[in-house]
Amino acid sequence: MSNEHQVLDETPKPMETEMPVPVPVVFHKYSERVLLKTILDRRDGGSGLLDQRVVVGGWVKSSREIRKDPVPAVHTGVGGEVKEGAGGKDVKCVEVFQSRIPFLRTIIKVFGGSTGHGHGHGHTKDKLESVVPRPPQPAISMLQISDGSSVMSLQIIVDSSIAPPSQLLPTGTCILAEGVLQKPTLQGKHAIELKTEKLLHIGIVDQESYPLSKKSLPLARLRDCAHFRPRTTTVASVMKVRSALNQASHAFFRNQGFVHVEVPILTATDTGAFSKNFRVSTSNFSSKEVDGEGPVSMDDTANVSLDTVKHSLVEKIKKVEELKRSDSNKEALIAAVQDLHKTNLLAEELEARSKSKSKSKAHSKTKSVKTHGEFFSNQAFLTTSGSLHLESCASALGNVYAFGPRFEADRSESKKYLAERWMIETEIAFSELEGAMNCAEDFFKFVCEWVSDNCYENLYFLSKRVDRGIVDRLHSAASTPFEKITYATAVEVLNKVGVDKGSKKEEPPKPN
C-alpha cells in the first residue's frame, strides 16, 4: 500500500457511542396515545425523550396559572411612524391602538359634551371601554395530569391562546393534549414537561360539586363518592398491588403445572359447616297484600295461623255472595272481591310455607326442598369454599387450583371481617403434608418478590402514606426461610403470649 493510503487508514474513526440514538416513545396500541408511565417511570425521569412529539391524556390533579409579562410600550415617531418595542418584535394592531388611547380619550372628551370634570371622566372611561374592549392578559396554565398508569404526574404547559385557563385549572378536568417534550421551564422536581401545541379534547367539570381537591381526603370520606376513589393515589396504588398479586398467583401455579378450575358460585352443597351460608332466593313476598293495608312480608305473617285465614276466607266469600244478590252497591262489591282475592293469596302462601317446613324437618339440610315460587328446585347458597369440587378434579387432573370469591354470613364486629373475600384453594394429588407446606411457602415468597419487582413505585408511595415497613417486610418474607413447628409447639407459644387485651375473651387453644 502507498503512504497516502496508510495515512488515511490511521485516521481515527468517531465512536458510535458519541451520537446516541434517541429512544422513541411507545404509543398505546388501542388509544393512539402515550401512557405516562412510559415517560415518567424511566430511570432518567423522561429526560432522554426530549424534543419528541407525543399525545398524552389524563385528568388534572393540581394546577396553577402564571401571568405573562405585560405588552411592551409602543413608541411613535415623526409622522406617526410606529417604532418597535424594547424587545425588537413586530407590533400588532391592537398594541398600536392601545398606544393611541390617550389621544382617543381627548377626542371623546371634546365631542362627548361632558359638563363636570369628575362625571365627565367616568363617562369618558365607560365610552372608551365600550369602544375598545380590554384584551385578556396573556397567561400560561401549568397542569399536573395523571392517567393512572404511574404514581407520578406529568407537567403540561398550555398557553392561553390555545385554551383559556378557566377551563383547564379546575381539578378533575380531563384533557387530551398533543405537544413536544422539553426541559422544565421552572426548576423543580420534574425532569421533563410537555409544551402543548394542540388540545384534542377538554372535559370540563363543575368545580363546586367535584369532590376531589388538591388536598388529600380521608378514605372514609371517599366512600360517599365511590366512582372517584380510584383517582386518589392511595386507592389506585392498592388496586395496582392487588392486580399484581392476582397476576403473580396465576403465574406461580401455571409455572408449577397446576390446572386452573372454575368452581361454581351458586351451589347446593354446604361446604363450610363451620360457618353460616347466604341463601339465594328469588321469591318476592312483599307483593302480597291483605285487607288493603299495604304489602305484607312473610315476617309480618309469621304469627298468623292458616286456620284463621281460612275461616276469614269463608266469611269473605259469604259477604261477596250477599252483595251479588242485593245489587245495591257496585263499589262495595268490587272492594269485597278484591279483599277476597288478597286473602286467598295469603292463604296459598301460608299453606306453601307450612308444607316447606314439614319437608325441611323430614329431610336433611342439603336435600331437595321445593319452595313455593322459587327459581331453583333445591336450596341454593353462595359458596363458602370450592374444595369439594377441586377434590374431584384433582383425582382426574392431578394438581388443580381455584381463585374466586367466597362468602360467609357470620356476623362479626371486627373491621377485618368481610362477608365477601377472594380465596386461593389448591388440591395436590398424591402429596403429603410436607409437600403442601413447601408449596405454600414457595407461593408466598413468589408473590412477595413479584410485587416488590413490579409495583415498587406504588409500594414506595404506600410506605410513606400507610405503612412505613411494608417494603422491608416484603423483602424479608421473600428471602427468609420459614421455620416449621408442630401443632403442639404452636399451642404452647400461643398460650405463653396470651390473648390481646383489646379483643374479646377467648378460650386458649388446646392440643389435639
Name the strands of the widest sheet in spatial order. Answer: 1-2-3-5-4
- The whole-number mean of residue pLDDT values reads 77
- Major sheet, described briefly? 5 strands, mixed, barrel
CATH architecture grouping of the domain at 36-67 and 137-203: Beta Barrel
Taking all Cα atoms into account, the compactness measure Rg is 39 Å
Number of helices: 15
Structural class: alpha+beta
Provide the CATH top-level class of the domain at 36-67 and 137-203.
Mainly Beta
Number of extended strands: 11
**Poorly predicted ranges:** 1-21, 84-89, 285-300, 364-369
Instruction: Quote the distance from N terminus to C terminus.
Output: 95 Å
Q: What is the percentage of strand-forming residues?
A: 5-15%
Topology as a string of helices (H) and strands (E)? HHEHHHEEHEEHHEEEHHEHEEHHHH
- CATH superfamily heading of the domain at 36-67 and 137-203: Nucleic acid-binding proteins
CATH topology of the domain at 36-67 and 137-203: OB fold (Dihydrolipoamide Acetyltransferase, E2P)
Backbone shape: flat
**Share in helix:** 25-40%
